[in-house]
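Thread: "does anyone have the structure for this chain?"

Original post by V.I.:
We have the sequence but no experimental structure in hand. Need at least a predicted one for the grant figures.
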Amino acid sequence: MSEQSMANVPGADAQWWQSAVVYQVYPRSFSDLSGDGVGDLEGLIDKLGYLELLGVDAIWMSPITRSPMADHGYDVSDPRAIDPLFGDLETFDELIRQAHDRDIRVTMDLVPNHTSDQHPWFSAALGTAPGSSERERYIFADGRGDNGEEPPNNWTSVFGGPAWTRITEADGEPGQWYLHLFAPQQPDLNWENPEILADLETTMRFWLDRGLDGFRIDVSHGMAKPAGLPDLEHPAEVLRHTDDDPRFNRDGVHEIHRAIRRVMDEYPGTFNVGEVWVSSPEAFAKYVRPDELHLGFNFQLATATFDADEIRAAVDSSLQATASVGATPTWTLSNHDVSREVTRYTPTGAEAEGLSSERLLAIGTNRARAMIMFELALPGTVFIYNGAELGLPDVDLPDEALVDPVWENSGHTDRGRDGCRVPLPWEGAEPPFGFTTSDAPWLPLPAEWAALTVEAQLEDIYSTLSLYRQAIELRYARLEFSGDTVEWYGAPDGCLAFRRAGGLICALNASPFPVPLPPGQILLVSTPLEAGLLVPGATAWLI
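Reply from O.Q.:
Generated one for you, tokens below.
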């Protein structure tokens, strides 16, 4: 972290993000001070001391801009206003001031692919005729069939169902269709219209001028659409996470990122990170070329199982991609769209046979602890999703509690992402564990989280929270973490070991058997050794 106050030194340490630990705040679920059951900016300000204690460099907030909340903020109706659910601009400015006083940078989501259907632009588009300048801000098209009753193409929504919705024209007759790659309440913008970029630049400067330190760009592999909007070859498949999905990852998106970067370059010390759902190193590298994104949000580790070969392949692929263009690698194990690591690493199927639910959860927790140490040992930028530091698992919510639009849009076949978005437990012995004074938080907290509260873990030197704090502190304090590369060397079957240029050795045991440690002095272990051996599902740092 910078030793100088960022509030007094604009642009100081302009490359700070290259080795930063960034903490994702999902505002609805972080801390509620208003008592309405939904987290807010006042609650975040109240917990800045906790984030300082954790040791993070920056926070990234999921959307807090004005929205009808059809997709919990990712349907933006006014990108230059704070939604009253979270607070107001005065509170936002106070957050920036207090965070900077603690040497914590603040970044937030930017949503350029689509708006809310309640955005003034979309309302204007509905009130005008086909071909109007208002409709040219979005992607409207005539339907197929004799009376235009069929969608313009066979595209599906990432959230389930068709990607097109037909409107009723001003004369009351069925009219054109508009494209929404996500929910129907999120019409896609037409990025071939220069007005779209001009407005985004205005939005970016609005927040950067207030002291914001950067943006996470939602769906940064979207925006550009293929000419002619051709049919999908396999429309029944949701292809969002494949490099050849014609709806995403088009060449035209890179010029958009260059334009965004030009604005960012006007504000030294700021950075942007794009949500880039591509898998090949070659495709990923294009997004982090020197004149595009500073960072690409890398999902390789977040989608890998607890398997040594998969984990190493994810690291090698990521390092290859960034090294090819001189960019900084990034790492994350979870976020608001991805199942929490404790749950992902909990054994299932044959591996789980004969084990109690308590034992299975313990295995998942130990593996998650091992993976955060493995991740923090890597060079580059690390993103931590709020609650990961507490070892929270996903919550199996009852059907009636589900509010993610994926649940409804999929016809109740996909339970969506609510399970990883349950609010954080702070203190006390009963739900809602200090998250809110309301009896009805927006998602219910499970009673079994009493042992996982911040209060319960702070003074426990063996807790997951204490492990995070120790690991982050060592990452900053020890010169052994220096260098931009990793050197793999021999390890037992099912295990991984690498050395950083500065001398740090990281050893991960993803096998089912205890294994001997590499030579060296132990700095930290994720789970205590047994008879001097690294137990299954554990990581050790040595020098």
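V.I.: this helps a lot. Residues 222 and 248 are 5 Å apart (CA to CA).
O.Q.: and The first strand starts at residue 21 and ends at 25.
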